Amino acid sequence: MRFQRQTISVEEAVKILLSDLETPREEQVGIYEAAGRILARDITATCDLPPFDRSPLDGFAVRAEDTAGATVDQPVSLEVLETIAAGDVPAKTLTPGTASRIMTGAMLPQGANAVIMFEQTEQPGEWSRQVRVKRSLIAGENLSKQGEEVPIGSIVAKAGERINAGTLAVLATFGYAQVPVVRKPRVGLLSTGPELLEINEPMKPGKIRNSNAIMLAALIAEAGGIPVPLAGLPDELPLVKRQLEECLQDVDLLVTSGGVSVGDFDVMAYLADEPDVTLLFNRVAMRPGTPTTALIYQNKRICALSGNPGACFLGAHLFLLPLVRSLSGERHSQAKRIQAVLGETYDKPCPYPRFLRGRLTEEAGQLIFWPDWNHKAGNLCTMSMSESFGIIPPGGRGKQAGELIEVLPHTMPSWSREG
Amino acid sequence: MRFQRQTISVEEAVKILLSDLETPREEQVGIYEAAGRILARDITATCDLPPFDRSPLDGFAVRAEDTAGATVDQPVSLEVLETIAAGDVPAKTLTPGTASRIMTGAMLPQGANAVIMFEQTEQPGEWSRQVRVKRSLIAGENLSKQGEEVPIGSIVAKAGERINAGTLAVLATFGYAQVPVVRKPRVGLLSTGPELLEINEPMKPGKIRNSNAIMLAALIAEAGGIPVPLAGLPDELPLVKRQLEECLQDVDLLVTSGGVSVGDFDVMAYLADEPDVTLLFNRVAMRPGTPTTALIYQNKRICALSGNPGACFLGAHLFLLPLVRSLSGERHSQAKRIQAVLGETYDKPCPYPRFLRGRLTEEAGQLIFWPDWNHKAGNLCTMSMSESFGIIPPGGRGKQAGELIEVLPHTMPSWSREG
Lengths: 419, 419
What we know:
With 419 residues, chain A is α/β, with parallel strands linked by helices. Chain A has helices spanning 10-18, 165-173, 212-223, 237-249, 267-271, 309-327, and strands at 26-30, 43-44, 59-62, 76-84, 98-102, 114-117, 121-122, 130-133, 155-157, 178-182, 186-191, 196-197, 208-209, 226-229, 253-257, 278-281, 293-297, 300-305, 334-335, 338-342, 354-363, 366-371, 388-392, 404-409, 417-418. Chain A has a 6-stranded mixed beta sheet with strand order 6-3-5-4-8-7, with no helix packed on it. The first copy, chain A, has a 6-stranded mixed beta sheet with strand order 14-11-15-18-17-16, with helices on both faces. A 5-stranded mixed beta barrel of chain A has the order 20-22-21-23-24.
C-alpha cells in the first residue's frame, strides 16, 4: 500500500477520522482550575438573577406616584427613611411621602417601585432627612427585577462549551465551586526519524533537531489535550508494533510525525499493511502533506503526520486538533472554511488543493488573505506568523489577486493588535 | 472629584494608562514551559537552515549531466552506490554514471547536483545495484541548499513576540533549550463591595456572589499576567490606604472592581481625592463603564473598573489587558478597531460611544457584526458568548443594519468552528 494509495478529500478524511469516537468521560475540577476546560453537562441557574429586586444606580428609591408633577423648578420633597448599601437588607417600608437613599446593586425596600438617580435630586446635605426630587417617575423605572435576566432553573451554559472568562463569571454567580468538565484526552507524541536530535543536543552532520514534537505538544495542549512525549521508534516493524502496543495503553490517541511517505524507512507506511492494523486513509488530496495517514491499532487512533514541518503543522490543524477537541468533548471541534479575497496572485499549478499559510487583514469590512512571503511549505521560520490557511483550488490556473478563496482561520487574526 | 469629573475618550485613557511604564524584566525558562510567554530578546539562527544540502524527497541523488536525454522509453541506467537514510553521512562520492538511493531529508552525497523521485525511476528490485532514470534533470533540481531558508545569524523571532507553536519549532530547531522571556507581571485582584459573597457561600438576602474576580483572573492569565487574589477592602479610607500599600508591594499592578461611581461607599472614588494618589482619569466617554478610573499610588498603577459585570468585562478588555500585555513585554498590546457591517439596527441613543458585546460572522468575505440578543450591559449570562465589541457612535440616531461600524475583536471568532 506504500505506493498504491487511494486518495480521499480532506473533508472525507476528517469525517472518517472523527466517526465512532468513544464518549468522553467526566470529572470534577475546582472552579479556579476550570478555565479552558470543556463543560461536561449543561449548567443551570441555582437562583433567580438578579436574586432580588435591586437598584441599578446610586440614588433614591421612591414610590413613583409620589413624584407626579415634579420638575426642576417645582421639586417634590420626600422624607428619607434610611440609606441602603449594596448587601444590606432594607429595614423600612416606604410609605406615602417617603424615600430611601439607595446604592447601586442594593435591594429595593418594600413599597418602592422606582429609583431616581442622585443627579436628578437635591439634598440640603448628604445626610439630610429630606430630598427634593426634580423629575417625575413612572412605576418600574430604574429597577432590576428579580429573575429578569435569568429565572432559576434556566440553562446558562451548555455541555460541550469551552469555559472562558465569561463562563467562569456565570459559574461563580450560581455557586459552582466545583465544575463538571470532560477529562482531558492523553495524546501520545512520537517522532520517527534517525536524523532527529534532541533540542539540547549539539548539531551533527546529516542531523537536524526535532522541532515537530514540541510544536505538536503546544498545539495539543491548546486544543485541550495532555501531550505525552514518547520515546522514538525502533527500526524494525515487530519492535515498532510491540512499542506502540505499550504506548497505546497509556494514551487515548497517538500522533506521530514522519515515516508516512514512500521512503525505505517510512515505518508508519509499512505499519498500515499489517493485518491487525486498520488503515483509515494514507493519501489525502492536499498539498503539503499528501501522504498524511490515519490508522486504528489496538482500538486507538493513530494520526500519522508528515515529518516535513509545514506539512506536519497543516496536518495537525486539519486532522489532529479536531480529533483532540472531539475527544475533549468540545461541541465545535472542526475548523470551518470562510471566504476572503486573495491579496496577491498565486499561480503555481497543483493537482490538489494547496493550503498556503498566511494572514487575514480587513479593509472596510472586507476580509483579505495574504499568503506568507515564502511559499515553501517546508519552511518553518514563518510558521509562527501563520494565522490562517488560504486554499488554492486544484488545477492549472491558481488564483488571481482579488478573487475570493476559501480560508481556514486557525488562530486569532493579528488585525486585532497594535501599539 | 466624585461628582465633578473630566471626561476623556477611550483612546486618550489608554494612552495615559500605558505611558511611562517600567521596562519589563527578563528571565530564562525551559522551552517546555515557554508556550504563551513573550520573548525578551531577538532570537538568531545558530546554524544554517537547512544545515546541509539535502533531498526534499525519496529518490536518487544523481549528477544531472548523466541524465541528459533520458525518457520513459529511453531510460538512462546508473549504478547505485549506496542508500542514504535521513541522518546518515553519505560514504561515497558520485562519479559519472553513478547514483545513490536517498531518502527525504538525507544529506546529499558529494558529486550529486540533483535528485529524481522514485516514481520517475525504475529498479529491477528494491535493492538492485542498477536504477533506470526515466527523465532528464537540470542541475539544482529537487535540492534544498544549505542555508536557503535561513542563513546562520539571521533573526528568526523577535523580542516582544508571544511564543506560539510555530515559535517553539524555531526555538527547538536552533537549540534554544532555555528561552529568554519577560517575567510575568503580578496583578493584584481586589473586589470591593459588602454585597459580595464567595463562590462557595450560600446565598443571603441582599447579597450576590463575586463573579468579577474569577472573570478578571482568567483574563489576566490569558493576557500573560499572574493574577494575585487579595482580601476585600475595609470601609474606612485610612484602613483602605494602609491595606493597599501592603498589597502594592507584592504586585506590579492592581485591579479593582466596584466602588468607582458616585455611591456613598465608593471607596475607589474617594481614594482618587487623596493628595498622595495621582488620578489618571475617572470618567471615560463610553457606555457601559463611564466611571472607570485609573490611579497611581505608591508608584504602581491601579486600574479601578466598574463593579457591573458587563462594564467590568469591557473595561478589562479596553484598559486592563493592554496594560497587562505591555507589562508582559508584548509588542502589540492594544486592541485594534476593524470595520464590519452591523447585522441589525441599534437605535438606542447614547451621549457616548456604546460598546455592544457580540459576534462577527462572514458572508462572501464581508464581516458582519451581530450584537447580543440582550443588550443590557449588566447581564452576565451572555458574556461567555462575546467575541467582539461593536461600537455604536454617540448621538441620537444609533446605527442602521447594513451600515459599517467599528468593531474591537477580543476573542477568536467562532466562525472558524463547526461540527
